[in-house]
Design goal:
Number of strands: 6
Radius of gyration: 18 Å
Strand content: 5-15%
Number of helices: 9
Largest sheet: 6 strands, parallel
Protein name: Isoprenyl transferase
GO molecular function: ditrans,polycis-polyprenyl diphosphate synthase [(2E,6E)-farnesyl diphosphate specific] activity; magnesium ion binding
Strand order of the largest sheet: 3-4-2-1-5-6
Shape: globular
Organism: Wolbachia pipientis
Distance between the termini: 39 Å
Structural class: alpha/beta
InterPro entries: UPP_synth-like, UPP_synth-like_CS, UPP_synth-like_sf
Order of helices and strands: HEHHEHHEHEHHEEH
CATH architecture: 3-Layer(aba) Sandwich
GO biological process, one term: polyprenol biosynthetic process
CATH class: Alpha Beta
Length: 242
């Protein structure tokens, strides 16, 4: 993080133009592991360390909302041994007192979205605990999308609307039924790993978000790469169809 303290690098960004809400598709963990001749779980472990570094970077840059795509609905199709390892890794994070303490020291509030009920019971319990523990924090709102699918999110919202016999609804009202109801509009969506698609992530929310794709695999992603994405965002003109 030391380079953030170098005035030249830091001041290249116009803080008044920074996005309020950034989302990241953290892609490339498996390919990184393969290149390193390591197992996939090693790639995810390295990726989780990178995630915390990026979270710290967002705190330093005073970005108020960060959403990370950790596990999609489609990821359930992976071998059970792999999903078990992923949830063991998530459980280890949630029960790591040092990690959670660091989050609190950074004034971070944790928020999980997705079909959480599909997760192992032990993970669900720990999610509830850390959400409660960090609920008093008012700094960065860190949202982690787990067991999340945007199509499923929209269908779920429609189902709730039908159940409540709501016949007339606006876009603003509809958004109150989404998992992201407590989040502002998405400004910037970053995808690492070289792929150029949304992969069922925040489809409604990304309607007018700026998209930034980079070839860097997630375990190699750094605050320097994030700053580059933010710099490009600040020079784009957002017209919203006008």
């Amino acid at each position: 993080m030391s380079y953030l303290l170098k005035k030249k690098t830091y001041c290249n960004i116009d803080n008044t133009c920074l996005p309020k809400h950034v989302a990241i598709i953290m892609d490339g963990n498996g390919r990184w592991a393969s290149k390193q001749r390591k197992t996939k779980i090693n790639g995810y472990k390295k990726g989780s360390k990178v995630a915390f570094s990026i979270i710290e970077c967002c705190v330093k840059l005073a970005i108020p909302y960060l959403t990370l795509y950790a596990f999609s609905m489609e990821n359930w199709q992976r071998p059970q041994s792999e999903t078990n390892e992923l949830f063991n890794l998530l459980y280890s994070f949630l029960t790591d007192k040092n990690q959670i303490s660091s989050m609190c020291d950074l004034n971070i509030k944790l928020n999980f979205i997705g079909n959480i009920n599909l997760l192992p019971h032990s993970v669900i319990q720990e999610i509830k605990k850390v959400e409660e523990l960090t609920s008093i924090n008012n700094g960065l709102l860190l949202t982690i999308a787990v067991s999340y699918g945007a199509k499923q999110e929209i269908i779920n919202a429609i189902s709730v609307i039908i159940q409540n016999n709501i016949n007339d609804i606006s876009e603003n009202e509809f958004e109150k039924f989404l998992y992201t109801k407590d989040l502002p509009q998405l400004d910037l969506l970053i995808r690492t790993g070289g792929e150029k698609r949304l992969s069922n992530f925040l489809l409604w929310q990304a309607a007018y978000a700026e998209l930034y794709f980079c070839n860097t695999l997630w375990p190699n992603f750094s605050c320097k790469h994030l700053i580059k994405a933010l710099q490009e965002y600040t020079v784009r003109e957002r017209k919203y169809g006008r």
